[in-house]
Amino acid sequence: MSTSKIILGTTAGLAISGILGILFAPEKGSVTRKQILDKGCDYADDLKSKFSDLAASITDKIQSTKEFAQDLTQEAKTKFDDAKNDVNSSSSNY
User: Fold this and answer.
1) In the structure, what pLDDT confidence band is assigned to residue 69 with cuts at 50, 70 and 90?
2) What range defines the domain where residue 61 resides?
3) How many domains does the chain have?
């Protein structure tokens, strides 16, 4: 099972159990609704934070891949230029 499915299942389970715990608590309706709203905001903030971390991680990986491709391109260009110069110098010897 993939990690994202496990995280999603765990988060959903925590949210449902939190809401059920609040609903069955012996509090007034207004207090219970406030607690549900607060828990929902907490979960939303946590989800936003995790999404931001994921987006930053993806951005870093893209940047790293881009830099690797640029380095690889530069190395290939240098080797091509060296080979071209070798061919030119070899042909001038004949």
Assistant:
1) very high
2) 3-92
3) 1
